[in-house]
Amino acid sequence: MNLKQLAAEKAVEYVKDGMSIGLGTGSTAYWAIRKIGERVREGLTIQAVATSKASEKLAQEQGIPLIPFDRLEGLDLTIDGADELDRELHLIKGGGGALLREKIVAFHSKELIIIADESKFVDKLGTFPLPVEIVPFAKEWTMASLEEMGARPMLRTEDEHIFVTDNGNYIADCRFGVIENPKELHRALLALPGVVDNGLFIGLATRAVIGRSDGTVTVV
Ligand code: 5RP
Fold first, then answer.
1. What pLDDT is stored for residue 72 in this prediction?
2. Structure pTM?
3. Is residue 134 a contact partner of residue 172, using CB atoms and an 8 Å limit?
4. Contact (Cβ atoms closer than 8 angstroms) between residue 59 and residue 22
5. Active-site hit among 13, 102, 148, 158
6. What span is annotated as the signal peptide, if there is one (predicted)?
């Protein structure tokens, strides 16, 4: 079994009957959605929201009941991946471009379980370029502001075109070097006009399930 699948399937054990669930995005969340689908087909009764069009499609294929965001007061549990996580469970997310919906869903969840293989667990965040979602019409100004903040921003592309998020925005992948103070950087980025949100998730994750190369799983 691969490590992402190992972590994902362990985390799905926390899903119980009657819960409202947030479905994450990415190649690790894929395994969680598959496993939740399997349990739904065996009789588990849940309702779910998806953090991306890709996860929505997968959930539909799996037979997971999806409901619109505005029909829910909140979520019991969200299971999602991360690009990096540290000991305090600060995260970098957005490698798959879904950070805005992922953050909104995480914020409205009582619990956020992060699933990852052990390569994602780091001492300090910052090796993975921080995804920053920006509005398209002012992209040059916003990229320049990010550069003034000390980043080396690169506009994300896909198949030689600018990558567009599910919300119609662009992503600037920003190399800040080692992020010594994630909280401060998060605040500073949110204060920048043109920035919609950024991939730093501070104080949102409540638990992490890490798949180890020796075949074990650690729950942090
Ligand atoms: C998508 C995300 C993903 O959770 C993150 O990129 C990890 O992806 P993967 O599980 O494929 O490594 O934040 O926006």
1. 78
2. 0.95
3. yes
4. no
5. 102
6. none
